[in-house]
Amino acid sequence: MLEARDLRKEFGELRATDDVSLTFGETDGEMVFIVGPNGAGKTTLINLLTGLLEPDQGSVVVHREENGGTVEEDITGMAPEDRVGEGLVRSFQIVHVFEEMTVRENVRIAVLSKHDKTLSMRSVDDGHEDVEREIDELLAQFRLEDVQHEVAETLPHGDRKLLDVAMSFGLDPTYLLLDEPTAGVATREKEYVIETIVEASEADGVTTVTIEHDMDLVKEYADRLVVLHEGRVFREGDPSLLETDSELRRVLLGVDE
Amino acid sequence: MSRFLVDRDGETHLRLAEGMELTKNQAVLAAVGLVALLIVPDITRFTPLSFTAIHRGILFGLAAVGLNLLLRHTELVSFGHAAFFGVGAYAAAVLASQFDVSSGLLMLLGSVLAATAISVLIGYFVAGYLDIYFALLTLAFNQVLYAFVLQSGYFNYSDGLNVRPDGLNPPALFGLQLSSTGYELVLYYLTVVVLVVSLLVMWKLVNSPFGRALDAIGQNRTRARFVGIPVEKYVWVAFVISGIYGGLAGGLFALLQLHVSPEPTLYAFVSGEILFMAILGGFGTLVGPVIGGVVLVYLLVQAPFYIEYYNALTGLMLLAVVLFLPEGILGSIPKIGTGLSRRRRDPGLLREDVATIGSSLRRGVSRAATTVRIIVFGVN
């Protein structure tokens, strides 16, 4: 279980994250969707959880099952690359991949890293058969086999998004934080992207925390909904709130009913 | 297919070791390069080419190969690699003149150790910086070292130190006290061996997972961090490896010149030259920096005999390379090769080339004429 405890982050006058306390993954493989209007602090929250930003106050805690009991570990202040080792992995709203590498090479970096093999001096193409096999599986899972030898920067946007997520999955995450995985993806492809992510996370029992603007997708896939507004947790609960809660609709859609 | 020949996508590759393969063209180039390296002493005996200048060029080229690890893979521009070259050279000189070490190989060991120590130290401070900050910090460390050596009596100020353990003869190589011609020849072949081994090691390194991790860091630092790569640590390691190459080259340079002073080894200008060598030879290639080193050093050594304003030469060459040969000498060979073979098949292309050059010349002349008219008459 991943816990945000009283997280606060200020940028000058603006309090982007205002005493946010949340838990993710109480049940294995939970799919949480974070929604909220622009400037609600969604990305800031993910940045705080994954270590791109340090909170001004509060802490990030990981709960782990060990020897029948739960162990708490405070990971506030831990470097992002070390959080990856704790199973905390993210993707980015603006695609972050290695642009000059092929799709396969991109995924390979992630899988090598998962196996702690990035310091290895053995040649890439030989002698890492287990790695290559895993890359094949990931490429199949994310339907990227056909473009595996294409250079990342030449891919269509939807495939780039999928590649970004595939790399995250290659790291064997326990908690996967996805910042708008469907942003900029054509409407008819959105479903496909989310569907692929859902399939993969169900197969591996990964807890996902996804920022999403498309409410149809949220309604369809969310186990739980978190609504952020002006840096605070505005609502938390079942996705059906989107239909029943008129105040929530006003905040999200800016419409009076 | 035998053990050394493998088939990749219908092309025959020469396989040297696991993951180390050459295409047919690369194998031919490598063989030509190796033969050229080995017969340099004979060529220079029968031609007016300068043996020492080529030797020196190879050494600076070796330092540029080290610098290129940062430039090509982590995409960091170091303006301070003379620091390691100089430290390597001074380590050898100090061992010879202050500690009476007479073995050249021991001096080289000293060079490598000293360069390692210095690059560990400098690398610790610069590994977290990017772009212009990285360039300026490396430059600053370089200048600090230069100023320190220049002011220090231990290093004999700007006059520098001799690399003659007994004050007269060059150091012993492999336990042999050689005559000056013999010494130069043995040292040259030692350099060739060091160069070839260093290139093979670098080749292996950049094709390993570690090399790919460095590529990843160069292409997107944030993403590299979030796939779990400890970015600063890896940059630090790469920085040290690259410093060791510089130190090794500097040590051999001391053995070649038998005298080390701050100006030609430690001065920041030398850092700029090493950087330029990598770009001139082709920083997208493994061997390019060596070629850049030989070409640039040779020009710098020979130019004063032919041209009055030889100092402008480096700048003019840099301009020419950036404008016309951005991938450097070696990096442009494939492109030039395909261009030539296409023209051989289709002579019409050649006529087009002439037309293109003609029209761009005409355009240049008319633009110049317009400019002159505007300056002279105030209107076009």
From TrEMBL, chain A:
Example of a GO MF term: ATP hydrolysis activity
Swiss-Prot/TrEMBL keywords: ATP-binding, Nucleotide-binding, Transport
GO cellular component term of the entry, any: plasma membrane
Gene3D superfamilies (alphabetical): P-loop containing nucleotide triphosphate hydrolases (3.40.50.300)
SMART domains given in the database record: AAA (SM00382)
Origin: domain of life: Archaea
Domain ABC transporter intervals: 2-255
CDD domains: ABC_Mj1267_LivG_branched
Pfam family, one: ABC_tran
PANTHER family reported for this sequence: CONSERVED COMPONENT OF ABC TRANSPORTER FOR NATURAL AMINO ACIDS, CONSERVED COMPONENT OF ABC TRANSPORTER FOR NATURAL AMINO ACIDS-RELATED
Protein name (Swiss-Prot/TrEMBL): ABC transporter ATP-binding protein
Phylogenetic placement of the source organism: Archaea, Methanobacteriati, Methanobacteriota, Stenosarchaea group, Halobacteria
UniProtKB/TrEMBL annotation, chain B:
Organism lineage string: Archaea, Methanobacteriati, Methanobacteriota, Stenosarchaea group, Halobacteria
Transmembrane helix recorded as keyword: yes
Subcellular location: Cell membrane
GO molecular function: branched-chain amino acid transmembrane transporter activity
Membrane topology qualifier: Multi-pass membrane protein
Pfam families xref list: BPD_transp_2 (PF02653)
GO cellular component assignments: plasma membrane
Keyword Membrane: yes
Full protein name: Branched-chain amino acid ABC transporter permease
Transmembrane segments: 27-47, 53-71, 78-99, 105-126, 133-155, 186-206, 234-254, 274-301, 313-333
Keywords annotated in UniProt: Cell membrane, Membrane, Transmembrane, Transmembrane helix
